[in-house]
């Protein structure tokens, strides 16, 4: 593929691209369940205890994937109904979804009077405070090993900014948690929209005073990169991340202008490709 002119601005998707999603969810769920089996042992319903004890890491990993997908489906339904997304509502739904999926897995006992309640019943695997802590993983997602070092290098030659599907408070919590050195923070909520809607990409470019063709999107999701290219971005940079591609059917369709393959150094390798010199 022909590499276009180097951009002035690098916008970054965050979830899955800068911070890990899939494995941290599995890790957090598995660890929380093991701790709950001990701390809540005296009050656990016997069927709940037996079910939880049989759960493997792989099953908790899959549960995390289903949790993420359920929130994605909720967001997609909101888009379809109103052509907009309330990202604070999406954030709130993450906790609702967690309760729902745990009830469906027979790990939370249902309230017969309020089947959709977000309050745990006696005998359940988790208490409400434990679930609040578990849900907070979404603002504590750890960065990939190359994220901070790569961003530090890229900041030498480029303007860097987030551009992710969430609201600003959540984005800043993620950045602050891992001290990610972004120069600017943009989220879809600032443009009353959602990626891959063109107004998000174009609006972010305008905020920084650049034309879309002077900008690049760095992402681990081909659908996001396609949206950026369709909106006029000059470069789409695909940084492959383990287990993070949600639309594998887009592989091989010629969407990215530049690819950093999984396991090849991520953002640090990207900085090298783009001509950033190390000290």
UniProtKB/TrEMBL annotation:
InterPro entries: HAD-like_sf (IPR036412), HAD-SF_hydro_IA (IPR006439), HAD_sf (IPR023214), S-2-haloacid_dehalogenase (IPR051540). Keywords: Hydrolase. It comes from the Eukaryota. Pfam families: Hydrolase. GO terms for molecular function: phosphatase activity. This is (S)-2-haloacid dehalogenase 4A.
């Amino acid at each position: 593929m022909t590499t276009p002119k180097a951009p002035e601005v690098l916008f970054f998707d965050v979830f899955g691209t800068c911070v890990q999603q899939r494995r941290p969810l599995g890790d957090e769920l598995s660890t929380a369940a093991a701790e709950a089996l001990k701390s809540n042992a005296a009050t656990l319903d016997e069927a709940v205890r037996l079910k939880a004890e049989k759960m493997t890491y792989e099953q908790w990993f899959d549960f995390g994937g289903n949790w993420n997908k359920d929130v994605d489906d909720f967001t997609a339904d909101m888009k379809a109904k109103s052509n907009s997304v309330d990202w604070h509502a999406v954030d709130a739904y993450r906790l609702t979804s967690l309760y729902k999926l745990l009830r469906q897995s027979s790990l939370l006992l249902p309230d017969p009077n309020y089947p959709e309640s977000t309050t745990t019943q006696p005998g359940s695997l988790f208490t409400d405070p434990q679930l609040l802590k578990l849900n907070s993983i979404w603002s504590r997602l750890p960065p990939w090993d190359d994220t901070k070092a790569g961003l530090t290098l890229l900041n030498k030659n480029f303007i860097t900014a987030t551009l992710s599907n969430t609201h600003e408070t959540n984005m800043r919590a993620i950045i602050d948690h891992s001290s990610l050195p972004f120069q600017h923070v943009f989220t879809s909520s600032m443009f009353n929209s959602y990626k891959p809607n063109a107004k998000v990409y174009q609006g972010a470019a305008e905020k920084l005073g650049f034309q879309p063709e002077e900008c690049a999107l760095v992402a681990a999701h081909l659908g996001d990169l396609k949206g950026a290219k369709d909106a006029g971005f000059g470069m789409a940079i695909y940084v492959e991340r383990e287990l993070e591609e949600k639309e594998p059917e887009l592989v091989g369709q010629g969407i990215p202008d530049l690819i950093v393959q999984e396991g090849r150094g991520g953002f640090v390798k990207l900085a090298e490709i783009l001509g950033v010199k190390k000290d």
